[in-house]
Design brief:
The protein has about 280 residues and is an alpha/beta fold. The protein has a single domain, classed as L-arginine/glycine Amidinotransferase, Chain A (5-stranded Propeller), CATH 3.75.10.10. It has seven helices and 15 strands. The strands form five sheets. It has a three-stranded mixed beta sheet, covered by helices on one side. It has a three-stranded mixed beta sheet with strand order 3-4-5, sandwiched between helices. A three-stranded mixed beta sheet has the order 6-7-8, sandwiched between helices. It binds arginine (ARG).
């Protein structure tokens, strides 16, 4: 499929990079425990709606030519749909996740085994970390968060495993408990983020490194608008995050809106459902 984007003088021609991702169908999705402020086990969830919404994300990726791998969902692991937490994959190496809460711990080995069958070299982690939920690659640098789920020791481990610069950031707002809920990578040098989710030192660091970053409003952050996936040209994101969408479009990207309202009940959006596989 060919998509043509009108290029105005204000926008720069963006180039889509080939992408490969791993996803997990929400076959067993529900909210049966509470490990983040979004989750209310007393409220019902609709598994069929979750699956239909997830399918729109899957189809959007396929339409954009993104290569999508699937991992089999396991019964009793309702959060397994949030594939981003399954590890961090770069340079053909899969650094395994070690989840903070017992409810999700079995996901770690399940994802690492699957990543090995996909041909990645498995590196089990010694430190608590929730994969690409807290680690995001921007160009050659890995932005890594601590504060709620991943420990700072994991940042040092990451630097060793991948031989890259790792920038440690600290999250301070429990509603934005994973880095990918508060910060989005649009291309090798462009990010968008919600400054209030970070402590002061992290905010200073982000300002210094990314002076041109898009700053999201609380409204857009609160519908997990930053929890998006970009191929460098197309940006798949929450359709509810209107202002952020406009700003991203104004930078010459082409946004594709999806509605994952049911998966938001577990505290996750587009990016949470997506683990990038980098050879
Ligand atoms: N219920 C899941 C948890 O709290 C949601 C994970 C969202 N994933 C993400 N990459 N932010 O662990």
């Amino acid at each position: 499929m060919t998509i043509t984007v009108p290029v105005t003088s204000a926008s720069k021609e963006r180039v889509a990079q080939p992408k490969r991702v791993l996803m997990c169908r929400p076959t067993h999705f529900t909210v049966s425990y509470r490990i983040n402020p979004w989750m209310f086990p007393e409220n019902p969830t609709d598994q069929r709606l979750a699956e239909a919404q997830w399918q729109t994300l899957y189809d959007a990726y396929r339409d954009l030519g993104i290569d999508v791998e699937l991992i089999d969902p396991l019964p009793g692991l309702p959060d397994m749909v949030y594939a981003a937490n399954g590890g961090f994959v770069l340079d053909g190496i899969a650094y395994g996740a070690r989840f903070r809460y017992p409810e999700r711990q079995p996901e770690g080995p399940a994802y690492l085994d699957h990543l090995e069958t996909l041909g990645f070299t498995p590196r089990p982690a010694a430190s608590l970390n929730e994969g690409e939920g807290d680690f995001l690659l921007v160009g050659d640098v890995i932005l890594a968060a601590s504060g709620f789920r991943s420990d700072e020791e994991a940042h040092a481990e990451l630097a060793k495993v991948f031989g890259r610069e790792v920038v440690s950031l600290r999250l301070i707002n429990p509603s934005f408990y994973h880095l990918d809920t508060a910060l989005a990578v649009l291309d090798d040098e462009t990010i968008a983020y919600f400054p209030e989710a970070f402590d002061e030192a992290s905010r200073d660091e982000l300002e210094r490194r990314f002076p041109d970053a898009i700053r999201a409003t609380e409204e857009d952050a609160a519908v997990l608008g930053l929890n998006l996936f970009s191929d460098g040209r197309h940006v798949v994101m929450a359709e509810q995050a209107g202002t952020l969408r406009q700003e991203i479009d104004a930078r010459g990207f082409q946004t594709v809106g999806v509605n994952l309202s049911e998966l938001l009940l577990g505290g996750g959006g587009v990016k949470c459902c997506t683990l990038e596989l980098r050879s």
